[in-house]
# Entry
Amino acid sequence: MILWQKNYKFDSTLIDNLIFKLINDKNSFDNNKYYTSYFLSYKNQPEKILHKKYKKICTKVSKDLGLHHRASLTFDTWMQVYTNESKLFVPHDHFSGNELLSWVHFLREPEEQCFCFIDSRGNKNYPQVQSGDLIVFPSWTWHEAFPPKSKGYRSIISGNIYASVMFIRDKSNKQSPKMIYEKFENEYGGTWKFSNEL
# Structure
């Protein structure tokens, strides 16, 4: 289910520093025995120093996949660190309405495969990934992550690419009406609305 893949290796010292910052933030420890920046405020997310790099990567992805001039796009990130004491990160997807693409950057990946996709029949597909690989897939794709068997830290940065506006082109290929995504009041989910405004 991978739509796009490329290897981006970061300096080992940089990765060590990111891991150190995350695991030393008491608010990052999850009941499933892994560390995550998902619930941290932006200023406390260690991976925020990489946002310029990820913005360039997300722009390249959106251009390569034909989305760049068809939508107003944004992205977010979160970092996770697992040990061999972590629990299974259960099957899940990232879709709530306006996420088009999701990605995982495997900063530090053990030799055994810890990430898999799950199809509608429950079959598991383990993409062959190594440290530095960044994969992009549809946000509605089910996937799960297993803790590493070996000692040390398995570290990833995940993200989503969102659309707030989708432009519709008519037969003459001119930009015309658009779809606008409006979030529900509870901040989870939303609805797409048609607009004739140019």
Observations:
- The longest helix spans residues 51-64.
- The longest strand covers residues 154-169.
- The radius of gyration is 18 Å.
- The chain has a mean pLDDT of 93.
